[in-house]
């Protein structure tokens, strides 16, 4: 029994896969928002929304449990990735907010843009991490 715990405890997680798994909660948030703003409400949507929230919680718990597998090089790569993604986030939010200052905003569309921006940011974070990790920068 103790040997099995040691094997699973020492098991390494591929960091590229770990970064890719982090995309799933953002996609679930986008799907949840889509169901919340639909005009033709169906009773099944409530059940699906609860299932999406459950999936998000499970994925976030899995991600939280696997976060201690970093070595120093991976932490440095992640810091570089996060600094690049912060600049991308500024661009995305500027793209969303600047036209909203001059045009009367449609709040449903703004919500879609923000949720889509989150999805775009997590996908770009995974891609940038994989590129930096592959090149060894």
What does this structure look like?
The chain is mostly helical and 137 residues long. The chain is built from six helices and no strands.
**Fraction of helical residues:** over 70%
Rg result: 19 Å
**Strand percent estimate:** under 5%
Taking the sheet with the most strands, its summary is:
none
Supply the helix-strand structural class: mainly alpha
| Number of DSSP E strands | 0
- Spans of 5+ residues with little confidence (pLDDT < 50)? 1-10
Oligomer state equals single chain
- Distance from first to last alpha carbon: 41 Å
Shape: flat
Q: What number is the mean pLDDT?
A: 78
Q: Element order, helices and strands?
A: HHHHHH
Number of helices: 6
Topology of helices and strands:
Blueprint: H1 2-9, H2 15-21, H3 23-37, H4 43-65, H5 72-102, H6 107-135
Helix pairs in contact: 3-4, 3-6, 5-6
List keywords for this structure.
137 residues, mainly alpha, 82% helix, disordered N terminus
Give the gist of this structure.
This protein is an all-alpha fold and 137 residues long. The chain has helices spanning 2-9, 15-21, 23-37, 43-65, 72-102, 107-135.
